[in-house]
Design brief:
This protein is an all-alpha fold. The protein has one domain. It contains six helices and no strands. The relative contact order is 0.12.
Length: 182
Amino acid sequence: MNIFNRIVDIYKKIVNKICDVFEVLAITALAVMFVSVMIQITGRYFFRNTPGWTEEFSRQLMVVFCFIGLAIGVRNKSHIAIGFFVGKMPRTPQWIIETSGKILIALMGIMMSMQMGPFFTVLRYNRLPGTGMPVGWTFVIPTLVGILVALVALYQIYDHFKYGTDEEQKQKLLDEAATKGV
């Protein structure tokens, strides 16, 4: 194994660890959002008094959960794709379309982080009325997720050049699993 492949493997491991941390953050956000909504429902229906912070807090957690879900979807290749049509094409057009898609995903991640980042600095002194949280913090997670999406897409592009189309990569994994199971 040459040095470049080792560097790429280390890069993949680091990016996947970062994704794992974000995944734990998303699960925590979902759990806390569930508790917040339950407090809101309990307050509304049993005490006729809804705490003012619950709706706003849940909305902020929903932003965290959704954006992190976007990055995890890109990592797991579970984002929306037109695989049916692409899978019916010959290998070369299929490879070109998939590579182009991955390049566009990387560019989208870069653009997302570039467009969301300045909102933090502009809105960091504005406060949300219910919680008093700075509005700018809403844009931190989308900025970080944009960077993460670009990092994931970059190693997927490398994998695409090295191992072939997504379908070929899936088939290799299935073959490896079948031989280990024997």
